[in-house]
């Protein structure tokens, strides 16, 4: 256990909101019902459930079973942090399409010679693209499950709202079509990768 005790400088381990308390046992057999808070410089901090008092305990004074538990737990926490950093860098790009106008209608296709290039249309930046980007940027090892739950709920609402708006040949309908395409082809696969990472906790 020596390499584990001396190798960790600091690692915050309370990366899940639903951490359950466990019975910690010292090397001489004493027990403590408490929740893991952190590991720092060869010691572990736990919080007793009965009175919420915190204790900092040298790792080497714990039972071998608890030392192995902490070692495995720290590996999972490190894996989670690395996964968060990797996914942050993979936020999906936006979608942009040309819009054509003719006969008082707009379309992504040049349906006839009467349709002329009108403008470029992009996924709604402030209300959708940028807002979701900020939401993912606020994810950390502590709030990952609750934050993803909020993002999933918002995603379902926004997708449904844009699906309701996408019928017709107006610019509002085209904007909704573009938003839905981005939701389904880009954002949802990205969100699922986050949810898979959270499930590994």
Features:
SLA1 homology domain-containing protein, three-stranded antiparallel β-sheet, five-stranded antiparallel β-sheet, 201 residues, 8 strands, SH3 type barrels, alpha+beta
Short description:
It comes from Rubellicoccus peritrichatus. This protein is of the alpha+beta class and 201 residues long.
Task: Walk me through the structure.
The protein is an alpha+beta fold. 47% of the residues lie in helices and 22% in strands. The protein has helices spanning 2-7, 64-88, 125-137, 144-165, 171-199; strands at 10-12, 22-25, 31-40, 43-48, 54-58, 96-102, 105-107, 116-122. Helix 2 (64-88) runs antiparallel to helix 5 (171-199) and helix 4 (144-165) runs antiparallel to helix 5 (171-199). The protein is rod-shaped and about 85 Å long. This is SLA1 homology domain-containing protein.
What is the element layout, followed by pairings?
Blueprint: H1 2-7, E1 10-12, E2 22-25, E3 31-40, E4 43-48, E5 54-58, H2 64-88, E6 96-102, E7 105-107, E8 116-122, H3 125-137, H4 144-165, H5 171-199
Antiparallel strand pairs: 1-3, 2-3, 3-4, 4-5, 6-7, 6-8
Helix pairs in contact: 2-5, 3-4, 4-5
Order of SSEs, N→C? HEEEEEHEEEHHH
Shape descriptor:
rod-shaped
Radius of gyration based on Cα positions: 25 Å
Helical stretch tally: 5
pLDDT averaged residue by residue: 89
Class inferred from helices and paired strands = alpha+beta
Provide the helix percentage.
40-55%
Largest β-sheet summary: 5 strands, antiparallel
Q: Count the domains.
A: 2
The fraction of residues in strands falls at 15-25%
- Provide the low-confidence segments as ranges: 1-18
Number of E strands: 8
In whole angstroms, the N-to-C terminal distance is 23 Å
């Amino acid at each position: 256990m020596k390499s584990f005790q001396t190798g960790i400088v600091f690692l915050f381990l309370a990366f899940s909101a639903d951490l359950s308390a466990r019975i910690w046992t010292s090397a001489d057999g004493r027990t403590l019902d408490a929740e893991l808070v952190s590991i720092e410089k060869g010691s572990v901090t736990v919080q007793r459930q009965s009175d919420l008092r915190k204790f900092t305990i040298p790792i080497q004074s714990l039972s071998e079973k608890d030392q192995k538990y902490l070692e495995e737990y720290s590996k999972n926490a490190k894996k989670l942090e690395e996964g968060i950093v990797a996914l942050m860098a993979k936020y999906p790009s936006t979608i942009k399409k040309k819009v054509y106008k003719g006969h008082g209608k707009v379309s992504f296709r040049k349906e006839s010679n009467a349709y002329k290039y009108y403008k470029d249309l992009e996924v709604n930046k402030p209300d959708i693209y940028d807002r979701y980007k900020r939401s993912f940027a606020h994810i950390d090892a502590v709030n990952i499950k609750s934050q993803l739950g909020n993002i999933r709920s918002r995603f379902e609402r926004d997708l449904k709202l844009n699906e309701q708006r996408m019928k017709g040949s107006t610019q509002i309908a085209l904007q909704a079509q573009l938003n839905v395409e981005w939701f389904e082809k880009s954002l949802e696969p990205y969100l699922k990768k986050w949810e898979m990472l959270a499930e590994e906790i």
